[in-house]
Amino acid sequence: MKAPRLLLHGYYGFGNAGDEALLYALLKDLREEAPEAELKVLSGNPEHTRRSFGVPAVDRFHPLEVIRALRWADLYILGGGTLLQDVTSLRSLHYYAGVLLLARLLGTPSMLYANGLGPIETAWGRWITRHILRLPHLITLRDHQSLDFMEGLKVRRPALVTADAALGLTLSLTPEEEERRLKAFGLEPESYALLALRPPARGKSLPPALVELIATIAREEPYEPIFLPFHPRLDQPLAEDLLRQVKPRGRILQVEAADTPSFLLLLKRAGLILTMRLHALIMSAAVGRGALAVVYDPKVEGVAEDLGLPTLGKLEELPPMPELWAHYLALKEEISRREEALRRDLPDLRAKAKSNAQRALELWKTLQAK
Prior knowledge:
Rossmann fold, globular, alpha/beta
């Protein structure tokens, strides 16, 4: 039997550490399952993807290159992340739905690989999604909230809830190696609070209570506030603004988006993790840490629920200080207790994450046998 030719597609090549971690995880898991497989990526920055991951990549916005890549592929894999949604814009939904439709027209089998679904706020977006979800040969979803969303769209077809691909990531360093790498960042283990924050949707500002909470953490807790932009284009200006408000303590740490091991290390050895970024929550769990998440989007709440972790609450519903401070202190203790259960569950979570690659290869074999 010939080697499988797999085309991977997601929000890759745009400098978002969460999406780069997903690509890192997909490539790792697929290579472990099928070392002989030929892999190719549709990327927003093909040269960066080729250089960072050692994999062929083509421009996701070049129609002829996308058509050639789909014709080359035995299986088109869309994942992971929350790609089918219209909160960012309808253009994004149109784009991914269009490539799925193009794959069908070209006769290339497709798979949704540990995707999140929604929110989809427009009637047109729901109509598109309802029909486009009929096209993939296999759908795996990263959380039960996405399955509920799919069922709410009245999509009558099976889908499997597995786990986000990034939950299969591991950090294979000795404690001594970890400390050496942390010192290269100018950090000591457990001495810092890692803050992975992002601007709210549609240009809104962070609520004053959350800003005051961050300033109080900087003032009252024994941790240096370290702002870690997961998507610098969006997160850096917010981090700079917040840093001005928490000085003299605190700084912004710049890490190359594709350097997934460094993100895992920084999350693992933090004294405290406060995040709005979904993949800071997921990658923390992958290294056995419970992050305290602020729900700016339903996907954060859905994944936290599946991980058995409480959240600080919805961004727009946070109580004022000092009530928020008391809530934070209680949840910090709760997260600490939940970490033990999270670590016990990690082997199962990793197996679920890696099952996506196994199912992709099983699908390919079934299609080849026909």
